[in-house]
Amino acid sequence: MVTDRQVRLLRKKRMEGKTLEAAAMAAGMSERTARTWQHGPVPSATRTTRSWRTRPDPFVDVWAADVEPLLVADTDGKLEAKTIFEELCRRHPNAFDGGQLRTLQRRVRLWRAERGPDKEVFFPQEHAAGKMGSIDFTHATELGVIIGGSPFVHLFFEFILAFSGWRFVKLAFGETFEALLGGVQAALWALGGVPETVRLDNLSAATHELAKTGGRSLTKRFADVVDHYGFKASRIRPGEGHENGVVEQGHYRLKSAIDQALRLRRSREFATVPDYLAFVQGIVDRQLNGGRDEKLAEDRLALRPLPATRLPEYTRVSARVRKWSTVTAAKRIYSVPSRLKGHVIELRVHADIVEVRVGDKTVETMPRLRGDAAHRIDYRHVIWSLVRKPGAFAAYRFREDLFPSLTFRRAYDALRDARGDRADVEYVRILHLAASTSERAVETALARLLEDGTKFDYAALKALALPDEPTIPTVSIGTPDLASYDELLAAGGER
After folding, report:
1. I need a labelling partner for 218 at 20 to 30 A (CA). Which of 336, 371, 448, 467 fits?
2. Considering only CA atoms, which of 166, 158, 155 is closest in space to residue 184?
3. Would the pLDDT of 484 be above 80?
4. Each residue of 7-65: pLDDT tens digit?
5. Is residue 122's pLDDT more than 80?
6. Which range (11-20, 203-212, 394-403, 421-430) has the least confidence?
7. pLDDT tens digits for range 189-228
8. Is 164 exposed, middle or buried, given 0-12, 13-18 or 19+ CB atoms closer than 10 A?
9. Cα–Cα distance for residue pair 342/322, rounded to 1 Å
10. What's the first-to-final CA gap in the chain, in angstroms?
């Protein structure tokens, strides 16, 4: 069947002076057909709308009694034609077959176009330079990225200018206040100015629910950020993500661009996190921010100046170290060196790490807990006490944290099978050895013992991981007698 596009191309080629044969070939039709369509209306203008059915309507007997009442009651237009078809099959067994579902879907669609409920209308916006930037987090684990052999669970923070479309992307591991503050500040300082308004959804890191009204308002901490940078915070209504459409669409484009680049790369595995971030930044610079220089320059001219300083991107927590050598920060439990027990220390909770400070010095740095993890106990902090009372290991509340790796866990299970309750003592001594020497050496030795399948204990493990140094014998060298050398010289070297 000849299309309007073919006919227009045919006539264009003829106007360019092509022969009928050449024009027909370019348009993908025969010379005879081309002769017919050289002049006159295009094909779509010659067709008449059919006003009759080519086959009987299978739903004519049930439409008014069964289908239409369901559609009238469906005031939000969410009832699917497939659900209606299944209900018709239940009410009228053997009256319909699966091939008639498409017919019902067309009829339902037509009915809703004529008599259905009104649909929500969206309104395209005109954005002025420097007027608004949008911020939000988006989960990126779905990209299937692997770092060092393990799935990489992560998010991205995005800041996008509404006028120019310029965006800033930063890695995040949770929608925390520290990650939000770090993202906002990094974006504004990379941009070199502050827009009039920053649009955000109802992030728990920035807003909280009002007890009396049930609405939401900015938290004190984020309100301080707003005051420091001098922008207006604009929040969308709960559940109305389209009201922050600039960044919502931005999330889709970012992850789509990364996914396509990963497909071209033919691997989603990276050696390190910095390698992956460099890959992402390259995509942002080339594909998403490329070609926006002119509009970005307009945005920057209209931006407000940055303040003199940045805000600290951590939360201070003062805590007394309990007798269990633990402290609580951001509702998570962390162990600290036992020498700090009883001291009041300062914790600086960053987006990805927690600093332990005594006075003006940082004495420990540990990864910040993420997701559902509620506690982190470093065996090096408590092993010196535990080795003196190994009986506490069996019922220790945080016992699972005392297995640094799967190899240690398998070693403990093997000890339980071979030595019963004595396994607790043996394992604690092995853990003490790892803390006082080299965890890697101990783990390597454990892996060998497990692979061999032989029964072992602490002594066998120590002999393999740290064999005794060989004894070096003492050698006594006497004072040389030089008299014979003198005699040799006196004789002129002849003896």
Report:
1. 371
2. 158
3. no
4. 999 999 999 999 999 999 999 999 999 999 998 888 888 877 666 666 788 998 999 99
5. no
6. 203-212
7. 999 999 999 998 878 888 876 655 556 788 899 999 999 9
8. buried
9. 6
10. 122
What is the helix (H) or strand (E) element at residue 399, kind and residue range? none
Q: Are 332 and 373 in contact (CB under 8 A)?
A: yes
Q: What is the CATH topology of the domain spanning 132-302?
A: Nucleotidyltransferase; domain 5 (3.30.420)
Is residue 341 within 8 Å of residue 330, measured between CB atoms? no
**Three-class DSSP category at 74:** coil
For the chain, the domains span 4-46, 63-115, 132-302, 315-376, 380-465
What pLDDT, on a 0 to 100 scale, did the predictor assign at position 314?
93
Q: What percent of the chain has pLDDT over 90?
A: 70
365 and 355 Cβ atoms separated by less than 8 Å: yes
Q: Residue 124, SS3? A: coil
Residue among 373, 374, 392 nearest 383 (CA): 392
Q: How far apart are CA 346 and CA 38, in angstroms?
A: 86
Note the pLDDT of residue 467.
Answer: 76
Distance CA 43, CA 33 (A): 12
> Using the 8-state DSSP alphabet, how is residue 369 labeled?
P
> What are the residues facing 252 on neighbouring strands?
none
- Please count the other Cβ atoms lying within 10 Å of the Cβ belonging to residue 113: 8
26 Cβ neighbours under 8 A, 6+ residues apart: 9, 10, 13, 18
**Cα Rg, the chain, nearest whole Å:** 38
Name the DSSP class of 284.
Answer: I
CA distance 396 to 377: 11
pLDDT at 75: 87
Dihedral over Cα of 452, 453, 454, 457: its sign:
positive
The answer to whether 396 and 382 have CB atoms below 8 angstroms apart is: no
